[in-house]
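Whether sequence alone determines local backbone shape is best considered at the level of individual chains. The sequence in question and its structure tokens are set out directly beneath this paragraph.

===
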Amino acid sequence: MDRALKIALGSFAISFAVLAIKYAAYLITGSVALYSDALESIINVATAVAVIVAIRVAARPPDAEHPYGHNKAEYLSAVVVGIMIVGAALAILHEAYLGFLSPKPIEAAWTGLAISTVATVFNVGWSAVLIRQGRLHRSASLVADGKHLLADVITSIGVLVGVVLVVFTGIVQLDSAIAALVALHVLWSGWGVIKESTSGLLDEAAPPDELARIREIISASGGDAIEAHALRTRHAGKVTFIDFHLVVPASMTVGESHAICDRIEAALKEAVEGAATTIHVEPESKAKHHGIVVA
């Protein structure tokens, strides 16, 4: 089983456990803020399911209908995750509004706080694992899930502070006020996930440092070629698509040109994880005298 899929399955199990813990804290206290915190955890469970589906789809090999593979399924899943985060924020705002209209005293506050803190500690550790492993395996959906959990951590901290303030001040409306403020933070987080994931769907180029490395590899591995130009890159999940034009001497045979292309492709594949390279060979009359000069 793919490691990214194993992590996603673990995320589902932990999210479900955290949901149960937070809902128990709400049942004990009756706090609107703690209820809102539990409500967001339902989205965590749904998000984990979306990530599992996305990773399984992205792992499928290319087929007749999808010759470039299914890697963008992870970006689509990440956008769905972002929409879920926004939905959770709106639901929390709704509950906060109802709490303002009908404020209720918090019962067994310290017990509820202790239980909710346990769930928050789980989320702190697991969000760090998801973001780190997601970036390591270039899984957009795992990173999005980790950022969602991190937003949940901020939510939980804000809720805990709100409940403590209610206990010490006796101002019951603070419970709903803190929930509303935290909902705005979650809303911003959801928008950030949507924006970042959309860039992958729009074929965003490789980052500058990776692009510079690709240029260096082409230059160093070009051998008897003259230059390379029209370099384009794009990310699609774990795959980095690279294509460019390689200018060779007019007297060079097809076999010799092909050997240079094979050498460049091998060097790129070794240096850039998931590199899929396409090279268009041109005679020296097509030289642009700019781009990548072959060493």
Summary: The chain has a mean pLDDT of 83.
